[in-house]
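Whether sequence alone determines local backbone shape is best considered at the level of individual chains. When preparing material for the folding task, we compiled for one chain both its residues and its backbone structure tokens. The sequence in question and its structure tokens are set out directly beneath this paragraph.
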Amino acid sequence: MVPGPAPFAFIDGALDRAGHLRNAPDRLAALWPRARLLLLDEQGRALGDTVTGPAPVTGGQRPHLREAAVLLGLDGDRAWFAAADDGEAGPRIDLRSAAAHWPVREATAFAQARAVLHWRARHRHCGACGAALRYGGAGWLGHCDGCGLDHYPRTDPAVIVAVSDGTRLLLGRQAGWPARRYSTLAGFVEPGETLEQTIAREVFEESAVRVRRCRYLASQPWPFPSSLMLGFYAEAEPDEPVAADDELEDVRWFGRDEVGAALRGETGEDGLLVSPKLSISRWLIAQWHAGCGASPAR
């Protein structure tokens, strides 16, 4: 583990997930009154704002939410829980904004809460028999009394890769992004596929560029809604990029000077814009620009 703060969001300040408490209801009940409670609405926004952070809600103030709350973990001897918003009036903040303004522990806990509550909201019934699920394990287990299956939160692995031909960096953009914004290429791992195979397939599908080799650098939880981004550097042939009609609006090679100007924010009105600092994508771009010689961040 490299010392110093992580260079992208949702890494630092992680709680002790305290798995030993998930099946200890009496101990959880004792921790509840002074526990910190993150409340999220149906859109995944937290009760709070950019100035003061999350609303200072404790478990003791919401006794009716204890059975439905999810244990996030421990900060010392204080527990943190998350629960679906019970309708209290107040400002709401989205996770991207919170990552830019909240202390790292709060932002990382928010990311964890958003991912597991999204799973809970969309997995109310058993996928095998259709019966309603009964939740236990402090919110981390859905049990089907109909067929006996247990269901656990799902995380989808995805690769994200800085692709270079040795002198240039391959970046693409989606149609809905801000003008001039480009990012590293990414895609989900398919069943029966290695990470290396995923990189070669996704890069070729999105750009028609052929990858020769790749190596792992770092990872980032990405709860939009439930991914784990696995960051790689890849060496590729200097093929002419062709954007896939159903994937990207544009894909092209960028030189080191142009990428450096974008990282420094010196692009003016017409230059390249890259991913925001909260994302592993920007870190990968910066690693390439610096020579891609750094060790993984975590």
Q: What stands out?
A: Residues 35 and 79 are 5 Å apart (CA to CA). Residues 293-298 have pLDDT under 50 and may be disordered. The first helix runs from residue 25 to 31. Helices lie at 25-31, 95-101, 104-122, 195-207, 256-264, 280-289.
